[in-house]
Amino acid sequence: MPWMDVMADMALAPWLVILPLAGALLAGLWPAAARWWGLLTGLLTLPMALLLALQVHAHGPMVLYLGGWVPPLGIALVADGLASLMLLMTAGVGLAISLYALGYLTGETGGRWFWILWLWLWAAMNALYLSGDVFNLYVTLELVVLASVALVALAGGAAPLVAAMRYLLVSLLGSMAYLMGVALLYGSYGVLDLQGLGAQVALSAAPMLAAALMTVGLMAKSALFPLHVWLPPAHGSAPAPVSAALSALVVKVSFYLMLRLWLTVFPALPLPGLDMLMGALAMGAVLWGGLMALRASRLKQVVAYSTVAQVGYLFLLFPFLRAFPDGWKAVVFFAVAHGVAKAAVFLAAGTLQRAAGHDRLADLGAVMRGRLKTSFALGIAGASLVGLPFTGGFIAKWLLVQTALEAGLWIWVLMVLGGGLLAGAYVFRLLGPAFQPGPADPGQPLPAVMEWVPLALALLTIGLGFAGTPVLSLLTRTLTGGGG
Amino acid sequence: MTVDVISPQIYLLCGVLLFVLGLHALVVRRHLLLKILAVNIMGSGVFMLLLGVAARGEGGIDPVPHALVITGIVVAVSATAVALVLMLKVKAATGLARLPLSGPED
Amino acid sequence: MIRRRFALSPALLMSLALAGLLIVVVLDLPPQPGLAGPVAQAMDQAGVGHPVTAVLLNFRGYDTFLELAVLMLAVLSIWSLGRRDPIPARPVQGPVMHGTLRHLIPVAVVTGGYLVWVGSSDSGGAFQGGAVLGAAGVMLMLSLPREMPMPPALLQRLGLSLGVFAFLAVGTAGLLAGHGFMGYPPAWAYHLILGIELAAAVSIALTLVLLFLGGRSRKVRHDR
């Protein structure tokens, strides 16, 4: 394709930081027009992310030296397969969230602050995905934390404020552990860029301790069981677009960073016990999250506990990485499939909640029967969470099981299948009221966009069911380290 | 010159001690103000460690850790300010400047 | 809390274990010069004379840019949480505070400005200067009459975002002009860096005052 060659000369990567950040600044300066800045940002960022992914797919990873200063002196932006996939998922789900919020937040208090903080969050996540420097990653990580803590607190009231405070403290603890890791790495090797570190890190005490500190710090940030306590109240009580952004996107950020570190900086280090520990915690998360989701009585609580459970699968990364070098790709595909499906479920739940005026599962039947588009979206996205065929979730779990089988790790096969059964049970609870006989009542009138966006995302999860091959081939364009 | 050889080591040790002191207080203390202070002490420990690392080279002081510390201080100030205001809001909403006991991370 | 002082809790044991590990590792760190060499070699193209400023504003300018963004986001996060309490809680009585401030604030402004300017060749810079200016601003806030009107909201927001805007504009201009994102044309580097430092110092000072106030202005109704 000749146009792609032309595009190859243009540095797309910085624009994925510049655009959302400019949107965030403009939204802050003119809060009255914040929603339009948000929409414009979404509309411009998605094509950029798509182009970048195509470019990376065609030409391989792209590294951009900021200010022309080559690492280790300067900072590099790295757009490779993994980064561009995460950027693309963020842009796709982000645009959906923005469109939905246009309908959801009309004239409501807090709407403007949602837009400002959400655009900041978007810019911060993009900056994090592109960064190729351990200290710069720390700064972007703090940006993500501040924006998401403020979004959690936005709902007001005691429970969200306490959840935000808990989240902030756990995150700061994680940040400090991460920063200590950075200091140890710099003290050992005198460089900060991921590739340079990866080339030098060898088996010795300092990098092992750094790896442990950074991994545990990031684990705390990603709400892995048993550090998940703040997540259900935060995700369950926030406004629907915030819940979707937190559950679908922010949870993936620290997972990504952990994966990036282990792929690039620490591949030379063995993981004594770490894989079993993480696997055990993952198992705990899947079981506990699934059981709590079965017990919860409100729609959005069920979905929030489902996130606790699904974070567990992300941490299969560690046993898989140990087993063989390509094991991480299945987990990344799972992260993307979960991101899209979870956003669809939370947005659909928001629509039903707004239509019914509450989200008590027991009393939602009439509205679910009256809002068929939304119930259908909830059903398809729920099927993807369970991992039923023809959805992205099915391919994701297929890949997970395949990876575990190839590695001979039977216990994780059982975990994925058992977790799927639990997910099936709680998703059936979500949909149950729709199938009971009774009157159909669409409830409060709602903007059409609140029904179409969840449906579009749900259809996208079906699309992902056929996207396994291109996604995996994009992921082969990922820079990994381990020269040392 | 023993002093020159020893002094960076002292910074490294003090940095570690501050970091661990802060970590312990963050886990053990219940009052939010103390927890926020504890995070700051952990940060100071890391900064001190970085400055000690900067002073070890043969070719003079390494400027990069100094730049990292300035950046880190500003980030820490920002996070602390947000945490303090959030603490006041939690106090206003629940009447207590501490987290409810439900969490295992307390 | 006294009853806990001598108890060997799991947290204490874990902390002691971590301390031991860290001390062993830290004392064993190999001597290596870090990036002092590469920085010294690149100084003649940095546009400024002081290595720390060169690292902050040029070699690792992107870090500094994002760090200004963190400061600004902190203010926005705090504003999103609600309005501030009246400050000062009690108006300051007597002549001492006002008399001191009358002399201190001009000195602080000159010192802060000097620190920003001198950062290009000696110890100092936008953050140090901005911190001094911010301290002056905090003192001023503490001594103000309680219901003194704040500057208009738009002006506050403009001042707040000045540093990030200046950095983003220069960085993007570098991208469009072919010097790469966050790149300066070498001939202009000194002037651009000084301009960014000034804008950043103003934003930092204002941000610190706004962080101290801890909430949106009570008078101006522009949101919610």
Structure in words:
The complex is a heterotrimer of chains A (about 475), B (about 110) and C (about 220). By secondary structure, chain A is mainly α. Chain A has one domain. Chain A contains 21 helices and 2 strands. Chain A has helices at about 1-10, 15-30, 35-60, 80-105, 110-130, 135-155, 160-190, 195-200, 205-220, 230-235, 240-265, 275-295, 300-315, 315-325, 330-355, 365-370, 370-385, 390-405, 410-435, 450-465, 470-475, and strands at about 60-65, 75-80. Chain A has a two-stranded antiparallel ribbon with strand order 1-2. In chain A, helix 6 packs antiparallel against helix 7 (about 160-190), helix 10 (about 230-235) crosses helix 11 and helix 17 (about 370-385) runs parallel beside helix 20 (about 450-465). Chain A is globular. The two termini of chain A are about 40 Å apart. Chain B has about 110 residues and is mainly alpha-helical. The longest helix of chain B has about 30 residues, at about 65-95. The model of chain B has no long low-confidence stretch (mean pLDDT about 85). In chain B, helix 1 (about 1-30) packs antiparallel against helix 2 and helix 2 packs antiparallel against helix 3. Chain C has about 220 residues and is mainly alpha-helical. Classes of the chains: A mainly alpha (about 475), B mainly alpha (about 110), C mainly alpha (about 220). Chains A and C meet through helix 2, helix 5, helix 6, helix 7 and helix 9 of A and helix 1, helix 2, helix 4 and helix 7 of C.
Instruction: Give the termini distance of chain C in whole angstroms.
Output: 42 Å
Task: Report the radius of gyration of chain C as a whole number of Å.
Answer: 22 Å
**Helix coverage percent of residues of chain C?**
55-70%
Q: Which ranges of chain C are low-confidence, i.e. pLDDT below 50, for 5 or more consecutive residues? A: 220-224
